[in-house]
Amino acid sequence: MNRHIFAPQTARQRSWFKSHPTGRRHVPMSCELLERKLMLSATSTETQTFDTAASAAADGWTEIGCTRDLTNCGTDFGFSASSNAGGSAGEGGGRFSRWGSQAFYVDSDLGGNVTLDDHLTATGKVYFDQVQLTAGVNFGWYDVDPNDLDRASSTLPALGMFFAEGGRTGARVRTPPSGGIGPINGQLSLPNDIPLEFSFVYDPDDGVYGSMTYTLTNPAVPSSSTISFQMTDAIRNSGVQFNAFGLQVGGAFGSENVNEEGYVFFDNLTYSTAVQQVEIDVKPGSDPNSINVNSHGAIAVAILSDASLDATQVDATTVLFAGAFAFQNALEDVDDDGDLDMVLHFRTDETNLDAIYAELIENDVNADGVLDSSNQVVESSLTGETLAGSGFAGFDEVNLFLKGKALRDLLDDLFG
User: Fold this and answer.
1) How is the chain split into domains, by residue range?
2) Domain topology for 44-274
3) Alpha-carbon distance 349 to 20, whole Å?
């Protein structure tokens, strides 16, 4: 996205920069990371208790690859009527071995792809029994291609946890071909044959490039252990996407052993999924969508009906734009296509657009010591839910600006 609209500086602005040649009081953030921070994470959450095989399947949980072939793959996992992890009948998991081709038991219907720009969490219960094992099993988000299962695990984009021989567990991210962070960076002790609770958090806004934190709790003691890693530039900017969540085994090409035996079970899961993408129009009828962040007025944003969304079924009380709730809404046909759209109005003073604008200005100046423009373009986000409780998100570019005394005051506040 072209973040700047280049416009001539005023004489007053040029004069200010002659007396403040660089204004470098702050460490600049890259434009790409700033844009990510300005966009709300377009994720929702899903829960799964594996009550029955049919209910799990109806929620999108699918077995992919060699999941139930003890003779050829040493595997027998998927839905299980056992009660190892959660204490009640019904859970996901089973037997696995050291095998070559990829195999999965995953929710393959996340409502779209999630990425490393999204805030992702997973909690639940896990039971691990390594028995006789020199391999491991992974649990988290993946980019699953059912037509490409004969590949090494190192080539599979993944984010989440691993459970391995020797009572080892830890956090892992794979972003091929740039690499990733894996078990060599830190591990937790994994008590064998005991139901445990886990929590995994990927926070794209923590630190410079984001972080992941994994906590394992033994409620019987009780005690817990936590490890955390910071992402790198290469990982964060790898562009990987994940289309499934759940259990993955395989990838041990050349060292297969179907006689190895390990068991893992999961239950009572809550995990991040994608939300429906909808079309929005900030300031309908306006192009560009210019907003004076000091206007003390209102901003109209339309949620447009289409084949995937009936805007009349939007719960207006849940809609957030730039950190603000709407104070007014109405139904009208904004785009003249014959169906009703929802138009919501947000008070500019209640949004975070002024803070966004200040950070964009600071980033602009810190880049080369010159303010290229007092107009700053960024992709804004709107999130909400339908009356049925389904989440959605929409995005549209806005042109933020200040002028006159308000702009001069901001520059003085930022750079002195």
Assistant:
1) 11-41+276-415, 44-274
2) Jelly Rolls (2.60.120)
3) 29
**Predicted model pTM:** 0.69
Using an 8 Å Cβ cutoff, are 267 and 139 in contact?
Answer: no
Percent of the chain with pLDDT over 70: 86
Segment 363-371 shows an average pLDDT of: 86
Which SS3 state, helix, strand or coil, does residue 357 take?
helix
Instruction: Return the ∠ at Cα 213 (arms to 211 and 215), rounded to 5°.
Output: 180
CA distance 41 to 243: 16
Sort 390 into a burial class: Cβ within 10 Å, 0-12 / 13-18 / 19+: middle
C-alpha span between 321 and 356 (Å, rounded): 13
Domain range 11-41+276-415, CATH class: mainly beta
> What DSSP designation does 82 have?
-
Give the mean pLDDT of 67-71: 92
Structure confidence by residue, pLDDT tens digits, 29-46:
344 434 434 444 467 889
